[in-house]
Amino acid sequence: MGLNYYQIKKNILRARKLVIKGTNIAGSGHPGGSFSMAEILGCLFNKHLKFDPNNPQWEDRDRLVLSKGHAAPGLFSNMAVAGYFPESEIDTLRKFGSKLQGHPDLKCPGVEFCGGSLGTGLSYSIGIALAAKIDSKNHHVYTIIGDGESDEGQVWEAAMTASKYKVDNLTAFLDRNFIQQDSYTEKIMPLDENLESLEISEMWKDASRWKTGDKWRSFGWNVIEIDGHRVEQIDAAITKANATKGVPTIIISRTIKGKSVEHMEDNPQWHGKAPDSDIVPIINLELDSQFMIAPSIIAGDMTNLENEIKRCVTGRADYIHLDVMDGQFVPTKTFDHNKIKELRPLTAIPFDTHLMITEPVKHVKDYVDAGSDIVTVHAEVTDESSFGEIHDILKQNQVGVGFSINPDTELPEWSYKFLKSLDQLIVMSVVPGKSGQKYIEETHEKMTRLNSILKQHNFSGYVEADGGVNLENIGSVFADGARAFVGGGAIIGQQDVRAAIRDFRNEVLKSRRYGLLAKANELGGSDLVNKWIGLHVIGEKQEQIKKIAQEAGYI
Amino acid sequence: MNEPIMTDMRSEYSKSLIQLGKENPNVVVLGADTTDSLKTSGFGKEFPDRFFNVGIAEANLVTVSAGLAVSGKTSFASTYAIFLPGRAVDQIRNNIAYPSPPPGKKGLNVKLVTSHGGLSVGPDGGSHQTIEDIAIMRVIPNFRVFIPADTIAVSKLTRLMAREYGPFYMRMARSKTPLVHSESQEFQIGKGITLRDGSDCTIAACGITVRMALEAAESLQQEGISCRVLDMFSIKPIDHEILEKAARETGCIVTTEEHNIIGGMGSAVTESVSESYPVPIKRIGAQDMFGESARDKEVPLLLEKHGITSFNMAKQVKEIRSKKL
């Protein structure tokens, strides 16, 4: 089974948008903490949690306890996406008579715990887990606790108890976003260590100063530390936790409060505040503008692909692009599924397998079995029937479905019906077959044509730009609508992959900010532009964005 | 009156739990390092898989009990009275009373049973003498609150709580208590018990003060005053019917309890009667001040300081009769 990466990501995006919608209509609520745990909940709801939305009281369901109950909008949004109730019901959040209370409540079928008073969810989860053990039941308990919440002594009472009773059917997540209501956690009540200065960002970057894991280890817990916004890391951690017997596991997830919306990120003001109505469309556009960077390892040392994978890992790639060439569909030959299978254990980062081979339908299963998380096949070598078959195989195995067109190829009409369920569309901007080519400028125009077709057919996947993408053109390629970027020589060909990826991101970010400013200007002129800029109070964002707005003449 | 037979509430509670454990595999028992004192450890020996000692962590005790209950268990959680309602009221409210699972249940199925209630705790002193627990517990929606007068009540109420879904609080005394009920006495939620009939006044009592009330009524009888005695073991829900009847038929009421006169059983009786058939009421109990150490033999002195004696009950009856409307 694949990671189901794209489906999870799509549903996380849907849930995030519902959080914005719900809190905006309610006029209050907690978007910050809902967003920091968005990937954790997304991974649980879309991959690991056993549940039946039509039978919320199903005896053998896994239990999800949201101890940091103020993040209720995040929970409710995921429940809506999962089908417990219509997504439109999020409009009733916090309203009189609604089952969507200000904090999670059993009034809403499917909610397992009445949250709100912090520090109690772990004890409650222990009770549920102990009951399951008494009854010899196999369901699992997942509990999300906050770092601010960890000030509560009861958390540590529970930590001891879970350890004493070897509650291994419980997995806790610590949503370590470093922010609580008043300010940064390390200012209010340090979980890691006392701050020497007020410079908190330095501490965040320095994992060696994070002591929270040691605390839990000393309480007898199995501790796994991850980046809490990386779906593949969360997935791997859950799998590891579930396989750990005899001790409870806590997955300490380094997260960012308000993640995915720049002005909310790392900003204590967004602990408990709703976005204004005029800002909501800009936020939604920002959420729709998430992007990923995928280094292509064939641009590196073909004799040591293992090392190229490692460079992608240290470079913090979002996923890894694997170009499979068979020497027939394209003149070059690279590697096949056997190599991918060898590389798979080296990382949990999703594998983006791009099949540049003839008759892909014959081989697609091999690439699924090798551990691909997404498999892309070419329009030039598929037809409605064979692509349909490929599509079904991939979906059944929770592997993302990708479709690719060469520079000279238009999207075939037969493929339109697949667009809705397509996870990725690769628009080749060089002729495939060899690396080091220049970006074909006509692609910009092609993207404009494609966008209207994609919109018309409800495409909700990622458009991936592949070929000749570099620091000079990535901003415009993003503006064209691409949301995933394959980096060959421009990334993997560089000495410092991490720096190259960071530069890529910064360029995209610039382009994205420009797009968001344009949206603000379109909706409310310079007043709204200024208001939106004013929301960016953390770090140097405000100055940077102001500069872009001035250059564009919006202010 | 005959010399009372003294029996131990905690032993009775323990016996009842073990019996319930045999009958019902869903009964679980939790303690917080007072399981030998509360004698719940007996259950632990019989049913080690259904017994959890969470250490000196009352908040955790309450919430773990709630988690077990939401999963279908009948949780009995016990420690000293001073450490449950006083210390863990947030957990009691938000983790037991507030969560109401579908369809239509009210609160979770947790029974908080405490010992060492009231002033009669004695030598441990004021820090351990809870005179606030009834006030705290009865103000929380969905909770029902009992104070048993003797071991017969303890046994029957423990069984009743196991049978009835929902949150309950029951407070026992530390020391041995005199038997006041017969083995055949029935106990119902929200139903007081008339232990002695009378027409001139009513004493409403609970816990260890029930026997004192009977003694007071006996002495009043010698003076030609007919005094009714009610065991108001069910403080919430309170028995409005029996109280209205007592008000109509006897015209005045004295309440007595080892709890602050503010917010306790006396308050509950006053609230009820003032809405149904207002008559003069005198509340006997801790006079809004804390207790203090008293060796076992001196406990009557401590109680006397707060007016909790049969002598004072008789005196108050005589005084309040003059205020009848």
Highlighted features:
heterodimer, A: 555 residues, alpha/beta, Rossmann fold, TIM Barrel, 3 domains, eight-stranded parallel beta sheet, five-stranded parallel beta sheet, 20 helices, globular, B: 325 residues, 11 helices, 14 strands, 36% helix
Largest sheet of chain B: 7 strands, mixed
Query: What is the correct CATH architecture of the largest domain in chain B?
Result: 3-Layer(aba) Sandwich
- The DSSP helix count of chain A reads 20
Question: What distance lies between the first and last C-alpha atoms of chain A, to the nearest angstrom?
Answer: 51 Å
User: What spatial form of chain A do the alpha-carbon principal axes imply?
Assistant: globular
Biggest sheet of chain A: strands, sense, closure?
8 strands, parallel
Counting copies of identical and different chains, the oligomeric state is: heterodimer
Mean pLDDT of chain A: 95
- Write out the CATH superfamily name of the largest domain in chain A: Thiamin diphosphate (ThDP)-binding fold, Pyr/PP domains
Low-pLDDT runs of 5+ residues of chain B are none
Q: Could you tell me which chain pair has the largest interface and how many residues each side has?
A: A-B, 32 and 31 residues
Helix-and-strand structural type of chain B: alpha/beta
Radius of gyration of chain A: 24 Å
**Secondary-structure element string of chain B:** EHEHEHEHEHEHEEEEHEEHEHEHH
Please report the total strand number of chain A as a whole number. Answer: 13
Radius of gyration of chain B: 19 Å
CATH fold node name of the largest domain in chain A: Rossmann fold
A few lines on this structure:
The complex is a heterodimer of chains A (555) and B (325). By secondary structure, chain A is an alpha/beta fold. In chain A, 42% of the residues lie in helices and 13% in strands.
Give a structural overview.
The complex is a heterodimer of chains A (555) and B (325). With 555 residues, chain A is an alpha/beta fold. Helix content of chain A is 42%, strand content 13%. Chain A has 20 helices and 13 strands. Chain A has helices at 5-26, 31-36, 38-48, 72-82, 121-134, 153-164, 185-188, 200-205, 212-218, 231-243, 280-288, 305-314, 337-343, 360-369, 384-396, 442-456, 474-480, 488-492, 497-534, 541-552, and strands spanning 63-66, 141-146, 170-176, 222-227, 249-254, 292-295, 320-325, 351-356, 374-378, 400-405, 424-428, 462-466, 484-487. In chain A, the strands form two sheets. In chain A, strands 6-13-12-11-10-9-8-7 form an eight-stranded parallel sheet. In chain A, strands 1-2-3-5-4 form a five-stranded parallel sheet, sandwiched between helices. In chain A, helix 1 runs antiparallel to helix 11 (280-288), helix 3 (38-48) packs across helix 10 (231-243) and helix 14 (360-369) runs parallel beside helix 15 (384-396). The longest helix of chain A has 38 residues, at 497-534. Chain A is globular, with a radius of gyration of 24 Å. The relative contact order of chain A is 0.09. The model of chain A has no long low-confidence stretch (mean pLDDT 95). With 325 residues, chain B is an alpha/beta fold. Chain B has two domains: 6-178, Rossmann fold (3-Layer(aba) Sandwich), CATH 3.40.50; 193-321, Rossmann fold. Helix content of chain B is 36%, strand content 19%. Chain B has eleven helices and 14 strands. Chain B has helices at 9-23, 41-46, 58-70, 89-97, 133-138, 151-163, 209-222, 240-250, 265-276, 299-305, 310-321; strands spanning 6-7, 27-31, 51-53, 74-80, 110-115, 144-146, 168-171, 177-178, 193-196, 201-205, 227-231, 234-236, 253-260, 281-286. Chain B has a seven-stranded mixed sheet, with helices on both faces. In chain B, strands 9-11-10-13-14 form a five-stranded mixed sheet, with helices on both faces. The two termini of chain B are 32 Å apart. The mean pLDDT of chain B is 97. Classes of the chains: A alpha/beta (555), B alpha/beta (325).
